[in-house]
Amino acid sequence: MSLPFSSIDELQAALAQERYIAERSLATAIYLALKLEKPLFLEGEAGVGKTEVAKVIAAMLACPLIRLQCYEGLDVNTAVYEWNYARQMLHIRLLEAAGEVHPETSIKDIFAPEFLLKRPLLQAVQQEEGRPVLLIDELDRADEEFEAFLLEILSDFQITIPEIGTVQAATPPIVVITSNRTREIHDALKRRCLYHWIDYPSFEKEYDIVLARAPQAPHTLAREVVRFVQALRREDLYKAPGIAETLDWIQALIALDREHLSPDVIDDTLGVLLKYHDDISYVRGGRVSHLLATV
Amino acid sequence: MPQQHHLLANLIRFGRLLRAAGVPVTPQQIGNAAAALAYIDLARREDVAAVLRATLITRREHLALFEHAFHLFWQRPEEKPAGSLPGDRGEQRRRQGESRRLAGGRSGDARLEGESSRPETILTYSAVEVLRHKPFARLSESELEQIRALILAMSWDLARRRTRRTMRAAHGPYFDWRRTWRLNLRYGGEMLRLSRRRRKLKRRPLVVLCDLSGSMERYSRILLQFVYVLTNGLEDAEAFVFGTRLTRVTPFLRRRPLSTALEEVSARARDIGGGTQIGQALKTFNKEWARRTLGRGAVVLLISDGWDRGEPALVRKEMQRLQLSCYRLIWLNPLLGSPTYEPLTRGMQAALPYIDDFLPIHNLHSLEQLGRLLGLLPAAPSRLEP
Question: Min CA distance, A35 vs chain B (Å)?
Answer without folding.
Answer: 32
